[in-house]
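User: I'm writing a tutorial on reading structure tokens. Could you give me a worked example: one chain, its sequence, then its tokens, then a sentence or two explaining what the tokens reveal?
Assistant: Sure. Here is the example chain.
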Amino acid sequence: MLFRRRRPEGIFNRMRIALWPRRSFVRSFQYFIKRVLRLTATPHAIAAGVAAGVFASWTPLLGFHFVLAFVFAFILAGNMVAAALGTAFGNPISFPFIWALTLKTGNLLIGAPAGAEHRHIDLKPLLMHLDFSQLWEPVLKPMLIGCIPPGMFTAITFYLLTYWGVTAFQTRRKSRLAARARARIQELKAARAERAADKAERA
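And here are its predicted structure tokens:
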């Protein structure tokens, strides 16, 4: 590869960058916004893709966020690249808040008794016999149910913000391109007029 590092980054350095970007969170957020705005698609497709990725990030199904985002984006006629970018909503900083909120919300919705989120999980059958029922009732079930209200709210919010931003950006870009085209046409007309004047003088 042409710009490959001489010394590959170690796993600890990669983890550090994932938790704390090299160029601050502000610059990373600005880069993310520019990537979304510059996608070539309709405002609805981009906004729907971002909303799909944001909603998928609320689910506790780690490792399947991209798949879920693509499925939701397909259903909503969203852009797949925007869906992949939208999953950045779920990151090492936001996950603890997402998991705590979805677990608490899920237990409230299913009417679980107080303190249900602190239910004991027997790791021995879980690890030795892959007994996922140890995770389903106390963790996965309430989190899957609890992710729906906040996931829907943030997905709709991101859809509206993204739709407005992409529409404004594309409108400005079209006006700039139209202005450049008009300026280019004027330059060509001026050049033709000069050539015509030169021919008339020579004649």
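What the tokens reveal: The mean pLDDT is 80. The two ends are 60 Å apart (CA to CA).
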